[in-house]
Amino acid sequence: MTRWQKSSRPGADAANRLEVAATGPSAALRESDDPTVVITTRPAALRALTRHLQAARFARTATRFARAAAG
Predict the structure, then answer these.
(1) Residues 6+ positions from 26 with CB-CB distance below 8 Å
(2) Domain ranges in the chain?
(3) Residue 11: left if φ>0, alpha if ψ -120 to 50, beta else—which one?
């Protein structure tokens, strides 16, 4: 049996969250609102995607702060 772990992102709609599971040598992803569609990838690729998304979020936040400070 696959153990799916839901995203713990605050404020995310509980009915529509990303879920992740370890499936042998792969990582599996699915949306909780449509659990029949599953995407698998290598754990290293998932880590790279996560780092990229976090960096992009940080860059957007830094840009907003810079614009606000500039007036």
Answers:
(1) 40, 41, 42, 43
(2) 5-70
(3) left
Q: pTM of the full predicted structure?
A: 0.64
d(CA 44, CA 41): 8
Contact 66, 50 (CB under 8 A): no
- Contact (CB, 8 A) for 28 and 40: yes
Distance CA 11, CA 59 (A): 21
Find the DSSP H helices in 1-71.
43-70
Q: What's the token pair of residue 21?
A: 């599971």
Q: What pLDDT score does 37 carry?
A: 94
The pLDDT tens digits for 18-63 are 899 999 899 999 998 888 999 999 999 999 988 998 888 888 787 8
